[in-house]
Prior knowledge:
This protein has one helix spanning 3-27, and strands at 34-45, 52-58, 61-66, 73-78, 84-89, 96-102, 105-110, 115-120, 126-131, 139-141, 146-149, 154-158, 165-170, 172-173, 176-177, 181-187, 190-195, 200-204, 211-216, 233-239, 244-249, 254-262. The protein has 264 residues and is mainly β.
Amino acid sequence: MSRFFKLLIPVLLAVSAGAIVLFFLSLRNPDTPARWTYKVVNMFPHDRKAFTQGLVFEDGFLYEGTGLNGRSDLRKVELETGRVLQSCKLPDEFFGEGITIFGDRIIQLTFQSRVGFVYDKETFELQREFNYPTEGWGLTNDERHLIMSDGTPMLYFLNPEKFAQDHKIMVLDQDSPVWGLNELEYIDGQIYANVWPTERIVRIDPGTGGVIGWIDAEGILAPEDHSDPVDVFNGIAYDPAGRRLFVTGKFYPKLYEIKLVPAR
């Protein structure tokens, strides 16, 4: 073999190896969802008796909807202290679920009763009731529609005045439906959803239902905070002015302000 070919062989092998790598990289789905973990940047007290079902931040206060028959309510909460400033108890037969603020109204779902409530935001006075054909889990809005989950992979977009369904989307992680969509928050053009009963949040494209990414919040509740019974991770609220993201859970003793960190 000539000296020329001896020198050429390593080059050919290197090119072939590179071509193989590029080939396999090309097989990866470019739409593979992004992944984040979290960093806790602040902690606030949270009522251990609150079975958190809905969470919203507006004008410096938290608004929280809680669940369980006989214990469900709507409340306005001071962020820094966790103190309940105002509340409205639901009738015992209703299991409260997600809430959202739409203009000067607070809208609250119930679990299996298929009844929703509309309150005056300032007074918590009940203005009306409405019905829907599914279970009620999470609720948010995009300033045009109410967006509701029912524990399935579906999200329902409702007219905020008539409460009739305008359209719906199926949430897919590539080709796989995402079950257990629970508490919702609309943030910067995306829908964030707790995925029951995990410590994960899924970020969703509201136009297509496609999964944009996943937030892994595993371990956010410290071992010492498990001394009393707690339930699942649930509750997402966003402060657009301060760009602060808050999360908590049912019976959690703390509410967390977190910063998202790209997963390695």
